[in-house]
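User: Second chain of the day. Same drill as before.
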Amino acid sequence: MDVYTEKVDCTNVKSVKEDLLKFLSDYEVYVYTRADKGYEYLGMYSFMLVIKNPYSNETLDIELGGSFTVFFSNWHAHYFAFDNDYEQMKRDIKGLLSGSIGALSVMDSSNKLIVTDLCSADFTRMTDKLQFLRSHIYNEEKFEKIIKTGGSMHIVFWNPAKLLKFDIIADGEVNDEYSNQLMR
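Assistant: Same format as last time:
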């Protein structure tokens, strides 16, 4: 099967749901449809899988329909109904649930969300935090603004005990000395 062109069987979203329920069999998963209160927005043949977090009220939600969307903390991503995207979605879910990746949120000084992304849990071993920030903010204007005005960076993990929060210190210059002081 050519993973780049073969579509996941979305004509029968139930089969995708069943596959994911097997994949998530070690977790407490609730299944919702548009008939359930709060999920009326779902499409006719769509499902929402909600994975209960044993550590906090932060859930991981997976919307299944013509495509797939995964939600965790401030982060979300869309995956097309092709094998390669479906497998990537499963890797992302596994990484989030195992704690090997977290959900990154970068806020400006007014606490407005600038960017969300997934990042590796080995972030704490990185020494160049400015380069890390630059690699996750793809828009140069937004990057320059956050450097000049300051803000904060949060990395949320399935187990909130691993939560990382850093202040981004406002400063008009970006240089090596500054990058060593970027986060505190």
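The helical segments are 13-23, 83-98, 129-136, 140-149, 176-181.

User: Great, on to the next one.
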